[in-house]
Amino acid sequence: MIDPRARTLEAYALAAGGWREIGRFAGSQPVSVAPFEAAAIDLGKLWTPAGVTGR
After folding, report:
1. pLDDT digits (tens, 9 = 90+) for 21-49
2. Are the beta carbons of 12 and 24 closer than 8 angstroms?
């Protein structure tokens, strides 16, 4: 789940019939998380630059 206001990404995995958190990431760090660990996600590119507001 991505929260652009809090600038966070939370990753979950299905285990034993329920969802468990496998990682919580924030800021602009590069993230590699299952099942997409082969491709890092640059969180900084997801967020609107500071001081810029949407319509």
Report:
1. 999 999 888 999 888 889 998 999 988 87
2. no
Q: Which residues of 13-24 are buried (b: 16+ CB within 10 A; e: fewer)?
A: eeeeeeeeeeee
Distance CA 9, CA 27 (A): 9
Give dist(CA 46, CA 11) in Å, integer: 15
Q: Which two tokens stand for residue 45?
A: 């590119």
Using alpha carbons, list the distances in angstroms from residue 48 to 27, 32, 35. Answer: 12, 21, 26
Q: Round to whole Å and give the CA distance between 6 and 31.
A: 16
